[in-house]
């Protein structure tokens, strides 16, 4: 059952203003609304909010969180596994610091003697290694690699890529009024999947599915794709999801 912003704020323990701010910056923008225009948070929105708050707790800035969770390759399961590792690492450091505080109190009471090295056990200002792992999975590195791959191609190769893309989009546009499950639609979407993997890097079926959702969620993608035919972005999203699910 969808929830209003005040209900979500009470459930999670954050302010309504925080949720409004996440909406304003495009970090968490629920699509469902009431007849009066109030935002409604679905289970999917709550799952996304959970991801945001886990990353926030781990010290990621909101701009980086937005970049990661909106990445076509974002995988919620992988994110949870990584977040668990990061939280365990954080707990390990906190336990060390608490032990250092306890020792320091005893040292002040004259019960024990501490070395200077012992006074700073638990302090570690080096970068968390798992933060780099997160950036590599869902950050700007994948984009950098894709851009570098395109930039390494000659002008003729880039023109050939553009023609191939147009051909695939036109083929899909001609099929968009039919079922995305049809043999023809799935054959055409497989062409798109193979094209992306050949020219832009390695897309897992799950990342491919996420990319399809972005075609609808991001107005820039929708506008560009729908130049080939109104409703093409939604058709591609559905076809890509069906294709990805068939590979599981």
From TrEMBL:
Classification via SMART domains: HTH_MERR
Protein name, as recorded: Transcriptional regulator, MerR family
Pfam families for this protein: MerR_1, TipAS
Record keywords, A-Z: Activator, DNA-binding, Transcription, Transcription regulation
PROSITE patterns assigned: HTH_MERR_2 (PS50937)
InterPro entries, alphabetized: DNA-bd_dom_put_sf, MerR-type_HTH_dom, MerR_fam, TipA-like_antibiotic-bd, TipAS_dom
Annotated organism of origin: Thermosediminibacter oceani (strain ATCC BAA-1034 / DSM 16646 / JW/IW-1228P)
Statement: the UniProt record of this protein carries the keyword DNA-binding: yes
UniProt-listed PANTHER family: HTH-TYPE TRANSCRIPTIONAL ACTIVATOR MTA, REDOX-CYCLING DRUG-SENSING TRANSCRIPTIONAL ACTIVATOR SOXR
Gene Ontology MF terms in the entry: DNA binding; DNA-binding transcription factor activity
Residue ranges annotated for the HTH merR-type domain, each copy included: 2-71
Protein transport among keywords: no
């Amino acid at each position: 059952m969808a929830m209003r912003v005040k209900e979500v704020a009470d459930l999670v323990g954050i302010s309504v203003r925080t949720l409004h701010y996440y909406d304003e910056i495009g970090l968490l923008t629920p699509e469902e609304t009431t007849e009066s225009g109030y935002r409604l948070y679905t289970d999917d929105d709550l799952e996304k909010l959970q991801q945001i708050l886990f990353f926030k707790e781990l010290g990621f800035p909101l701009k980086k969180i937005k970049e990661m969770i909106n990445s076509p390759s974002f995988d919620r399961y992988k994110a949870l596994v990584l977040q668990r590792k990061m939280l365990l690492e954080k707990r390990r450091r906190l336990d060390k610091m608490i032990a250092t505080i306890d020792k320091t109190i005893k040292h002040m009471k004259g019960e024990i003697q501490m070395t200077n090295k012992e006074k700073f056990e638990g302090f570690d200002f080096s970068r968390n290694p798992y933060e780099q792992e997160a950036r590599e999975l869902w950050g700007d590195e994948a984009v950098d690699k894709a851009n570098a791959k395109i930039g390494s191609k000659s002008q003729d190769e880039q023109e050939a890529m553009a023609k191939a893309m147009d051909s695939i989009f036109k083929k899909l546009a001609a099929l968009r009024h039919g079922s995305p499950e049809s043999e023809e639609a799935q054959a055409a979407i497989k062409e798109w999947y193979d094209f992306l993997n050949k020219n832009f890097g390695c897309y897992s079926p799950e990342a491919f599915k996420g990319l399809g959702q972005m075609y609808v969620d991001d107005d820039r993608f929708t506008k560009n794709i729908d130049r080939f035919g109104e409703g093409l972005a939604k058709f591609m999203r559905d076809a890509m999801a069906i294709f990805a699910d068939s590979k599981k």
